[in-house]
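Morning F.,

Quick status update on the modeling queue. The single chain you submitted on Monday has been processed. Sequence for confirmation:
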Amino acid sequence: MIVATSLISCEGQKEEDIKVTLNYEHPRQKEYPEANFRTGTRPVMVQKHHIDLTDFIQKHLYDETELDKNMTGTVMAPVNIQLEVQYKNYTFEEPQIHYESGISDPFVVTHNSPPTTTVTVPVSVNPDHPSQVVDTDNETEEIVETTVTTILSWSDNFTKGQVPNLIQEQTYKDFWDNASSQTWDNISIGNPDNMTTCTNSVFINDFLRNKDNASFEVYGLYCDGMYWTVGKCGWGLELSAFDRQRRDCACLNSSDIGYTIRPLIGNKNWGGVGKSCNADSQTLQVILQK
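Structure tokens below.
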């Protein structure tokens, strides 16, 4: 039985999408196959599967869900809290009394959580369930394999003809300071509805390590169909991607293909998608993911 549950957690600019796969193997009797049936040849049919996400210490319920017919569901999970997964299923004939249940050991989701975490949920049959199923193996367990995707994002609204204010500049700088404390697999820049992505992790983490190095620059590195440029424009970092090689601080026309992010330029040419000098008002965004 494969069960997929999505746990989504949010903290400031950070979002995590945790996909949980439960690999459930229920032992079947070889010597006495009838032990898996209530009476005659009527099998025990599970009607629904339920998961609670709770605090390990206080047992506070953060979220719960019933899995759909595809054995999937979504719950909201906090960051940096000891959590546990409580699992129960219910049969068609006795929908109010759980048939099987189990609780995982505690686990924590953090900014630095590994891509895959395995959580084991021992499962046992409810001895008071009316089905009275004979179970000769108490070592049945569910394995929860957790794949964590971490996202760090920045976005801000910029107005045509206006210089970015001090708050916008500081927010942009703080984003890169935070990003440089981790390693990333891909980066996307542009508008929320028009972005371009680079999946060259060596390039991404190299420029993050050198973001405060005034002499460091990347000129037209080809990645996923675009030429990426990193440099200093004004007093801070510019990150751009074009359909051909260009240097930083370039001014593109509205007919050009390019994505320019440079709120630290110190004037009204803060970038944009397409036109990058005195561009129309728009939202600029950067998304890092691993």
